[in-house]
Amino acid sequence: MEVLVIRHVKLAITRRGILVFVILLAVACTCLFLLWHDGQRAPRDARAVEPLIQALKDNDAMVRYDAALALWHLRDKRAVEPLIALLKDSDQHVRDTAVGALWALGDTRAVEPLIAFVEDEHNLWRGDAMRALGELGDPRALGPLIAKLNDEDPALRRAAAAALGTLGDSRAVHALIAALNDPGEGIHMSAARSLEMIDSPPARQRLLQALENKEVEIIAAAHVFFVQQGIQGTEPILIEALWGPYYDSDCHFEMADVFSTCGNRRLERVGKEEINQFWLPCLWSPGKRTVKWGEDRQDGQ
Fold it and tell me: What pTM value is reported for the model?
């Protein structure tokens, strides 16, 4: 949540001006306080785990919700199976909290239940369940995630594309390449970023084709790949990609961050200018993702 709050504050500074920034800063402070408060009230003693597990069976949905939230903070593996059972709870908020808790626990016992959760259209947090499946890194999630690239809901297609990149299985590459043509908002960018994350010849070939065709949104989403390639003369199109308007507003900030420390003088200058113009120093720390120009250059480039 902290990252989400900071991203929205940055976006406000860039696009809305100081008044909206002040308003959103107040909202951000409130959100961070609530997050801190939740963390403070969550039990920290491992002895609380068993009573909390028992509370997951309470007749009151709010009690079950609070217990699941507390187990989310504790991250004790003893809670995995009880939280899996909670994925079928009658209350939507309780089910959603169980998804978050299982995501935080990172236990592969949750893979099959999360796949079933994703398949149930009555569940709201299916996108988060897909992201959890991606981070669990279990190959059993590959087929279901690829299938979701054809879902009617563009938000779910976008989540599936992102999760496949985190999963990192090269068998998803051709499906992700096809998703680059998806007209749904932001889906092609999620697919491009995932292709960047999966190091395979077909993925590289398609990204290089995007460079040749000057597909700036794909270039922006996969900017790390292009910086790592360090192809001479590509700086202008990378800078053009930096300045594009995108569904994923994080792209602009992430690109400026990467450019500012990449070792290419021209890109570093542009990246630092963007940071100085649009960001508050307190909201930016340089080199969050260290990427060097040409560090992964292939022969002949």
Answer: 0.81
